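Methods, example record. To illustrate the input and output format used throughout this study, we show the complete record for Ubiquitin-conjugating enzyme E2 J2. The sequence lines were provided to the predictor; the line carrying structure tokens was produced by it.
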Amino acid sequence: MPNGKSITATSRLQQDYVRLKKDPVPYIVAEPLPSNICEWHYVVLGPEGTPYVGGLYHGKLVFPRQFPFKPPSIYMITPNGRFKTNTRLCLSISDYHPDTWNPAWSVSTILTGLLSFMVENTPTLGSLETSDIEKQQLAHKSLEFNINDSIFCELFPDLATNVRAELSRRAELEHELRNVEGDSDRNDTSSTLTDNHNGAVGGQSALHSAMSNLFVLVGFAAFAYIVKYVVKGLKTE
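The corresponding predicted structure is encoded as:
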């Protein structure tokens, strides 16, 4: 028979889940494992105005049986440039600081604190120092990383569907870009290829870079727009 503290943790987490569904945390969705309510998985949707925009960041919260009297462990799974992956994070709301933990704090409080710390640059155990460009590159790669994670796909099927659509769109754009470059190559005159080879190669490289960057920016904007509506739909469920 489970002890009293285990029952308390289960009951409290069930209450927190109901509250979270009614009043979601901005830019974050979260679900417990169906087989274990003490392990929750979350996805941070890269906030606008940050280098994380367009990215999806999957992580997990592992609650002790003594919750809410003891804090959870917090992990980030998706490479992000801010936190080390699959490493316990040292935050004031995590089990690294039981002395600062408040039993009145809920799952929503924890997720809000995590997001706040993610968009800051304050160093801590488990954090990383990377440039905004590196973070943007990881944001772009995060979709493909997450779609290969079975737990992400199982717990967040709506997000997974939109990720697959976005990756398919990217593949189509890349195919169109290659066709444009192929047409450009075929239209080059032999004199240009012979006398101005270096300039032509440089021009094609610049064209590829400019178009690729444009596709990425347009893709990020479109994907972020779609995700907003997914989250809005989750709020009304």
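Annotations derived from this record:
Residues 177 and 208 are 7 Å apart (CA to CA).
Residues 193-204 have pLDDT under 50 and may be disordered.
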